[in-house]
């Protein structure tokens, strides 16, 4: 299992692993990129995911997985450098630009990403999507937040409770 | 998005300032319960109502940064009876409780401890412990409302090193440093002081302005000798945590001048490093 079975034929080509989404699409990706997932890391270290085996991910659909892997591939080199302490400012700026653009997406996609990042325990991605949601609702009123996140309209009791809490925290709305 | 699990909510909420959390608490019943739950509050932004400082004791100032009107606390301590307000010295503060001592005007060597809740204007005077020395700065308050409504006071007992002069008379050393012999701990639950011998293996010197923080029932003390000392509220568990990397560096680390504090569930230690230039 140690010998790479794909790649561009160079000696020392990166080891590849196969991930299988919930809708049975196979994704072949460098082990280093897939290892950004704490959940997958152990399996991959044990030699899993290579060849015809593939690692099934029953909770992640193909659209979401391809988005997750886009993130992992971009971030893998920096992660391999131990968080890239000696990365140049240009590298860091490029990653930041990528991250900003990466989360500039539809809310339903964002929601799937949150769940996948959490399932796969990809720390950087978890933080990135959580921050995106935080930025979406920061500075909004409680009703605006409910609308932004697609909460159902409050029942009359819930509305009364919200009003009482808003009185309590009135100073926060200046 | 209304189905986010608790773990995900923590991730999201930890990215916003306290003011936003106040708005979030009004979004739904679940978010309100979640944000006000004691298990979560340490992972989220904390409320800063204001802070004390004094330019010249016993006058205190309290800038209120919460924007509340009127300011929630009057730093003149007008609610204390006159006697208690004399010669007051602010010793420590911990999670909203203040720990102060006052000296009696007629006997400067006698003093008492008061624990005050400035928000409710309630206060309690502690029963007098056996005084080992007339030094007020070596006591610390431990209070963690997320764990218990009871507070603790740790009063360190120092070896007030005695020296003999040429005539053979022993007298107290004027040097303010002293080794820690033990600690007497007051528990507001038992309303009593308990004495425990020091369990720290090496001789520890604490000065009367040492920094400390109370977390999870443990008092973390930044004392001398490149380490943080830890003691629990029972006085049974004594530990020493070496400064990271203290063995690798030959520079002199003045630990007593370091700062220790807590933010979002993590202890932060900021040692003041004094580089001594030698050959």
Key terms for this structure?
heterodimer, A: 174 residues, mainly alpha, Potassium Channel Kv1.1, Chain A, 8 helices, 7% strand, B: 279 residues, mainly beta, Monooxygenase, 3 domains, 5-stranded antiparallel β-sheet, 4-stranded antiparallel β-sheet, 5 helices, disordered C terminus
Total of domains of chain B: 3
What is the makeup of the main sheet of chain B? 5 strands, antiparallel
Query: Distance between termini of chain A?
Result: 62 Å
Please, how many helices of chain A? Answer: 8
Mean pLDDT of chain B: 70
What is the 3D shape of chain A?
elongated
Strand tally of chain B: 17
Strand order of the largest sheet of chain A: 2-1-3
Percentage of residues in strands of chain A: 5-15%
Amino- and carboxy-terminal Cα gap of chain B:
63 Å
Query: Count of DSSP helices of chain B?
Result: 5
Q: Strand-and-helix sequence of chain A, N→C?
A: EEHHEHHHHHH
Q: Indicate the radius of gyration of chain B in whole angstroms.
A: 21 Å
Helix content of chain B: 10-25%
Could you give the order of the helices and strands of chain B?
HHHHHEEEEEEEEEEEEEEEEE
Secondary structure: number of strands of chain A:
3
Structural class of chain B: mainly beta
> Overall mean pLDDT score of chain A?
84
Question: Share of helix among residues of chain A?
Answer: 40-55%
Low-confidence stretches of chain A: 1-11
> Uncertain runs of chain B with pLDDT below 50, 5 residues or more?
161-166, 168-173, 249-253, 274-279
InterPro entries (chain B): At3g26010-like (IPR055290), Beta-prop_At3g26010-like (IPR056592), F-box-like_dom_sf (IPR036047), F-box_dom (IPR001810)
Organism (chain B): Eleusine coracana subsp. coracana
Domain F-box (chain B): 1-45
Pfam families (chain B): b-prop_At3g26010-like, F-box
